[in-house]
Amino acid sequence: MASRRARVTIRDVADRVGVHPSTVSRVLNPATRGRITPEIVRQVTAAAEDMGYRPNQAAQGLRTSRTRTVGVLIPDITNPLFPPIIRGIEDALGAAGYTAILGNTDNVPDREREAVATMRARQVDGLILATARRDDPIVSDCIADHLPLILVNRSSDADGVSSVINDDALGIARVVHHLKVLGHRYIAHIAGPRALSTGEARRRSFITAMRAEELPLDPALIAETAAFSEDEGLRAAARLIAGKTEGGARFTAIVAANDLLALGVYEALAEAGLSCPADVSVTGFNDMPFIDRVAPPLTTVRIPQYDMGREAARRLIELIDTPGSPARSTTLRPELVVRGSTAAPPH
Q: Quick check: helix, strand or coil at residue 255?
């Protein structure tokens, strides 16, 4: 029987190049590569690739007490919002020599707990959560156990947790101002779940923006939802439309708390025989991929999805490398993208 090919070691690569093994180790570690001259980096990486060197992650973990893995929890992998965020996370982690372990929870708390328990059993070095609720026991447990943690796209009411989020207030204010400039006065809002920071913040921001623009604010035109989904957007919009046709509060525009809710609004308008934007203007939030391909293309708030994921990963690596560093929240600025779903109100 032929013998198995021996594993190529750092010493083998060092002997090929003619440098000390510690130099090879520094070159192959993204965090320390910058300390070595570019020519040596070129020679070492070329030799490692030519010889088929593969790092022994288990041995590295024993030396550093790290696995160089990070758990990433996503609430709904089918939501087009999240792939660009995941891409940003993986690119930043990969550049630092880390690997992501991805978990999809479908917004089910039991699945979230099971996924986090599995990741912690695998001794991940930290967690990136896009699933956090405002009052979330998982977040509290990680803080108590001093596990490096960062929230992305959502925040928590708990103290001592870092996050990378969007300026929801700015985004909603720009939407409401845009509608006012078009001539809308009576504007409805389909709010996200208040248990999530994004739902609560955008709802509160809508109320603030309506008052700031001196537009009439009718509580009957704020529809609550149980999830950021098309089905919930359809249900909430259908209720608003029914109230309007039965002589209730009138409106000429709907501000949806995210793009999926806005798609549900499209369906409700079509079922009621109404046209967007001729009868009702509609806006979303997130500018998820392909939302410009729907009919009509959706006016929405663009958030820097890739940048948000990349910044979350970079921040987590800082927390891993510097235990005890203070929690910090990073807020990214969104921009309004005007498309065909908004127009002047009907006469």
A: strand
